[in-house]
Design a protein that fits this description.
With 575 residues, this protein is of the alpha/beta class. It has helices spanning 2-16, 61-72, 85-92, 96-108, 129-135, 215-222, 248-258, 287-297, 321-329, 351-366, 436-449, 488-508, 518-522, 562-572, and strands spanning 25-30, 38-43, 49-56, 114-115, 122-128, 141-145, 151-154, 157-161, 168-172, 236-240, 269-273, 305-310, 337-340, 344-345, 370-374, 394-395, 403-410, 418-420, 427-433, 461-464, 467-470, 474-478, 481-485. It folds into two domains: 2-58 and 93-172, no CATH class; 205-572, Peptidase S8/S53 domain (Rossmann fold). Strand 17 and strand 18 form a beta hairpin. Helix 9 runs parallel beside helix 10 (351-366). The protein is globular. The structure holds 2-acetamido-2-deoxy-beta-D-glucopyranose (2 copies). The site of one 2-acetamido-2-deoxy-beta-D-glucopyranose has 5 residues, from strand 19. It is an enzyme of class 3 (hydrolase). Ca(2+) binds at residues 531-532, 550, 552. Keywords: Calcium, Glycoprotein, Hydrolase, Metal-binding, Protease, Secreted, Serine protease, Signal, Virulence, Zymogen.
Length: 575
C-alpha cells in the first residue's frame, strides 16, 4: 500500500512538475569568477536552444593513466606496447549502471540523447535555456567579451540529481566560457611586413637562416634530414579550425620555391568533421592552415600528412576541440603525431571539462599518438596579449598528457643561433598538478627563480611548455605571395614533423612510434636538447619568466637536435 502510494504521488508530481516529487539536487560545478574581459548582459532568452552534452563517469580513468605511463616510459617492460582502440575504450566507457541511470533521468524529462564519443562516455542532446535551467538548477546568463564582442551563455553553477552525481562527470556547456578570440588562430600568427630580410650575418647562425626561416634553415638549425620517409603507415595529422583553409596552390608554390628537392605535387589528405570543408579559392586561403601544412609537408619529407578540419557546425563550445578529439579517437589507426596551433586561456574552461579533454589526449597517447599543441602567443599573459595581473596558463598546455611547444627566434646578437621569442607562452596550470616526470626539472628552475613573480603563478601546477622550436620570421606562401609569420603556431608543426621523421626511422627498424612524448623528453632525451638560456616572455606588466640553463617556462627543455633525439629514441626502443 505504502509503495503504491509513493508511486502515485511521484507520477502526480512529474505530471505537474511539482517540486515535492523532484529528486534532491547537489551542486556539481560552480565558478566564483568571471574570466577577465567578460561582462554579464542579463538572462539568456528562455527559448535559446542549447546543445548540451553530458560526460558520463568513466569506468576506470586511473587505469588509463597507469596504462599510458607504462607504454610511454622508457625502461618500463610495456614501453611502446600501445593499446588498441578497444582496450582504451574499456577504460573510459561508462558502466551499464551509469548509462542506464543517466539515460532514464533524461527520459523522465522527455529527452532522448545520442552517444557522441566512440567509447560512449559522452551523450548529447538539444534543449532550451528554460528547460536546462529547470533540469540542472541553472541560471544561464549572457556574457559578452568587451574586446571581441564574443558572447557566451554561461551559468555560474549547476546541480545534478544527488543520486546521479556519481554517474555524471560533467554537463557542458555550463560554467565554461567560449574562447573570446574564437575568430582568430588562437596561437596567433601576427602578419608582418612582406619578406624584409634582416641582417643576421653571424658565425653562430647557419647561412640558410640569415634572411628568413625556411625549411632549409630549420633543417640546418636542428639537423633535420632531407631524406624521405619510407614507412607509409606512419602519418602526421594537422588540426584545422575556424574556416582556416589549407590552400594546395600555395603549398605547391612553397615547395617549388623552398623545397625544390621534393616533388611540388606533394600534398595532404583532407579529413573533415562538423561540416568542415577546404575550399581552394585563393582568397579563402588561411594563414594558419597554410603555415601548418607547409611546415609539416615541407619538413617531414614524404610523411603522409592529413589535414583534419573541424567545421563551424561544432556544438562543443570549445571551438571543436572535443569533437576533433572524438573524431580522431574514432579512427582505427589515428595519425601517430597530431599537431594543433590553437588554444585558449585556461581560466575560461572548467576544471572538469579540462580534465575530460585531457583524458581524450591520454587515450590518444595510450594508442601511440604524440599530441602536440602550440603553447600560446601572449607570453605569461596567455593565449593572446590581454590585460592581466596574475599570469594566465593556456589550455590545453596545462594538460600534462600532451606536449606543449614554445617558440624561439634566430638572433645573431646572443652568440648562439636561437634565443627565446618574447611572445612564447609558458607557465603553470591552476587545474593540473605537476606530473612527476617534470618535477626535478621544474623545481631546479623554481629554485633559480627565487621570489621573482611570486604570487602571480601556481608553483605546484603542471609547467609548460615542454620544448620549443623556431617561431619568428618564418617564411610561408600565402595567397601566392611570400609572407613572414610569427607565433608558437610555427613551432608546433616544426617539432611535430621532427617527431614524425623519428617515428619513420623507428618504424623502418620494426619499432613502434614514440607516442606520448613527455616521460621520454624529460628523461632519456632531456640532454639531447639545445638549451635556450636567453630572453624571457613578458606579460601582465612584468618581464615574465627568464629563460635559464635547463628547463624553463619560455622554451621548455630547448630546441631539438635530430640526430641526438633519434639516437635517444632508438636506445629507448632497444635498438
Ligand atoms: C650586416 O652585418 C654585417 C656584420 O655585422 C655588416 O658587415 C654588414 O654591413 C651588415 N649589412 C647590412 C646590410 O646592414
Ligand atoms: C594550484 O594548482 C593546483 C593543482 O596543482 C590546484 O589544485 C590549485 O587549486 C591551484 N591554485 C589556485 C589558486 O588556482
Amino acid at each position: 500500500m505504502v509503495a503504491t502510494g509513493f508511486f502515485l504521488a511521484s507520477l502526480f508530481a512529474t505530471a505537474l512538475g511539482n517540486p515535492l516529487g523532484r529528486r534532491a539536487m547537489t551542486v556539481h560545478e560552480s565558478r566564483s569568477e568571471v574570466p577577465d574581459g567578460f561582462a554579464q548582459q542579463g538572462p539568456a532568452s528562455p527559448d535559446t536552444v542549447l546543445n548540451l552534452r553530458i560526460a558520463l563517469t568513466q569506468s576506470n580513468p586511473q587505469g588509463l593513466t597507469d596504462a599510458l605511463m607504462e607504454v610511454s616510459t622508457p625502461g618500463n617492460a610495456l614501453y611502446q606496447q600501445f593499446l588498441s582502440k578497444e582496450e582504451v575504450e574499456a577504460f573510459v566507457a561508462p558502466t551499464q549502471e551509469t548509462s542506464d541511470a543517466v539515460t532514464s533521468f533524461l527520459k523522465e524529462n522527455g529527452i532522448t540523447a545520442s552517444t557522441i564519443s566512440p567509447a560512449g562516455d559522452w551523450l548529447g542532446f538539444q534543449t532550451t535555456v528554460s528547460k536546462a535551467n529547470e533540469l540542472f538548477d541553472a541560471d544561464f546568463q549572457v556574457f559578452k567579451h568587451q574586446e571581441t564582442g564574443s558572447e557566451s551563455i554561461v551559468t555560474m553553477a549547476y546541480s545534478v540529481p544527488s543520486d546521479l552525481a556519481q554517474h555524471i562527470d560533467l554537463v557542458h556547456p555550463t560554467i565554461s566560457f567560449n574562447n573570446p578570440f574564437g575568430r582568430l588562430p588562437l596561437a596567433s600568427v601576427p602578419l608582418k611586413s612582406r619578406a624584409q630580410p634582416g641582417n643576421l650575418s653571424s658565425d653562430a647562425i647557419p647561412e640558410s637562416c640569415t634572411s628568413t626561416v625556411t625549411p632549409a634553415c630549420v633543417q640546418d638549425l636542428y639537423g633535420v634530414p632531407t631524406t624521405p620517409a619510407t614507412v607509409k603507415t606512419n602519418t602526421l595529422g594537422v588540426a584545422g579550425y575556424i574556416e582556416q583553409f589549407a590552400n594546395e596552390a600555395d603549398l605547391t608554390t612553397f615547395l617549388t620555391n623552398l623545397r625544390p628537392d621534393i616533388s611540388p605535387a606533394t600534398t595532404f589528405t583532407l579529413q573533415t568533421l562538423d561540416g568542415g570543408t577546404n575550399t581552394q579559392t585563393e582568397a579563402d586561403a588561411g594563414i594558419e592552415a597554410d603555415l601548418d601544412t607547409q611546415y609539416t609537408i615541407g619538413i617531414a619529407t614524404d610523411v603522409p600528412v592529413f589535414f583534419i578540419s573541424a567545421g563551424e557546425d561544432n556544438h562543443d563550445n570549445l571551438g571543436g576541440f572535443l569533437d576533433w578529439a572524438n573524431f580522431v579517437l574514432g579512427q582505427t589507426s589515428p595519425p601517430q603525431v597530431l599537431t594543433t596551433s590553437y588554444g585558449q586561456n585556461e581560466d575560461t574552461v572548467s576544471a572538469k571539462l579540462a580534465n575530460s579533454l585531457c583524458n581524450a589526449y591520454q587515450q590518444l597517447g595510450a594508442r601511440g599518438s604524440s599530441v602536440l599543441f602550440s603553447s600560446g602567443d601572449g607570453g605569461v599573459g596567455g593565449s593572446q596579449s590581454t590585460r592581466c595581473t596574475n599570469f594566465l596558463a593556456t589550455f590545453p598546455s596545462g594538460c600534462p598528457f600532451m606536449t606543449s611547444v614554445g617558440a624561439t627566434l634566430v638572433d645573431a646578437t646572443t652568440g648562439s643561433p636561437e634565443t627565446s621569442a618574447s611572445f612564447s607562452s609558458g607557465g603553470f596550470s591552476n587545474i593540473f598538478a605537476q606530473p612527476s616526470f617534470q618535477s626535478a626539472a621544474v623545481s631546479a628552475y623554481l629554485t633559480k627563480l627565487g621570489n621573482t613573480n611570486a604570487g602571480k603563478f601556481n608553483r605546484s601546477g603542471r609547467a609548460f611548455p615542454d620544448v620549443a622550436a623556431v617561431g619568428e620570421n618564418v617564411e610561408i606562401v600565402f595567397q601566392q605571395e611570400g609572407e613572414l609569420v610569427a607565433g608558437t603556431s610555427c613551432s608546433s608543426p616544426i617539432f611535430a614533423s621532427i617527431v614524425s621523421l623519428i617515428n619513420d626511422r623507428l618504424a623502418a627498424q620494426g619499432k613502434g612510434p614514440l607516442g606520448f612524448l613527455n616521460p621520454f623528453l624529460y628523461g632519456a632525451a632531456a640532454s639531447t636538447f639545445t638549451d635556450i638560456t636567453t630572453g624571457d616572455n613578458p606579460g601582465c606588466n612584468t618581464n615574465g619568466f627568464p629563460a635559464e640553463a635547463g628547463w624553463d617556462p619560455v622554451t621548455g627543455l630547448g630546441t631539438p637536435n635530430f640526430a641526438a633525439l633519434l639516437q635517444a629514441a632508438e636506445t629507448a626502443a632497444g635498438l
